[in-house]
Structure to design on (225 residues):
């Protein structure tokens, strides 16, 4: 199956000032993060280069960046595909997520002020998607919530790491059946974490976050077995 790149044309404005491979990779990474490009789908060179208005060479460089980030794989004589992950990948990625996200909260606790508006927006988006029973959109809102958590640390390097990690995380979501049972618990956990952060209870938020991530890992491992 080849990815549906019909929406990429609307991203051309992002390349007006810089048509670099890094910027192309960022757009494709976001499409993976949002679940538009799913694991196992082929990233067609002609389709994507035409949609974005970039050269094949630039696109190939961006594919190499995505491969380095473990988001894409090149298969000889077949092309480039969105990567499909294993149970070992799940376990390792959640080790990274616990260290990164809980570490971000510890760092945020040291700052004089933190901006929680990104978390609030992601929670509201998740609630609205749940009311519409759009469970993949709830998953996307969850990804945005966790990126906003990492951003609280005020570190661009940490935020960039989290963007890559969350793009990989999104690849796992294909394991579920897009049901209320899988996605709805995210919302209550997010609300609990945000409530603790508003009260300045960063340690309590980190404990809830750690438990949440461990539960999510266990659920994904169960689905992948």
């Amino acid at each position: 199956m080849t990815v549906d790149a019909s929406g990429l044309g609307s991203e051309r404005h992002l390349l007006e000032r810089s048509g670099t491979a890094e910027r192309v990779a960022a757009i494709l990474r976001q499409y993976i993060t949002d679940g538009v490009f799913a694991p196992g789908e082929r990233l067609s060179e002609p389709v994507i280069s035409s949609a974005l208005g970039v050269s094949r060479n630039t696109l190939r460089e961006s594919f190499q960046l995505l491969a380095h980030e473990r988001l894409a794989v090149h298969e000889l004589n077949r092309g480039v595909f969105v990567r499909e992950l294993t149970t070992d990948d799940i376990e390792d990625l959640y080790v990274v997520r616990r260290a990164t996200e809980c570490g971000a909260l510890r760092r945020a606790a040291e700052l004089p002020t933190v901006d929680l508006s990104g978390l609030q927006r992601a929670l509201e988006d998740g609630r609205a998607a749940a009311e519409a029973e759009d469970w993949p959109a709830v998953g996307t809102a969850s990804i945005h919530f966790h990126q906003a958590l990492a951003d609280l640390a005020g570190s661009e390097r940490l935020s960039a790491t989290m963007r890559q990690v969350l793009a990989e995380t999104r690849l796992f979501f294909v394991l579920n059946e897009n049901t209320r049972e899988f996605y709805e618990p995210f919302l209550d956990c997010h609300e609990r974490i945000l409530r603790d952060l508003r009260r300045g209870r960063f340690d309590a938020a980190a404990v809830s976050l750690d438990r949440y991530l461990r539960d999510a890992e266990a659920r994904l491992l169960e689905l992948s077995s």
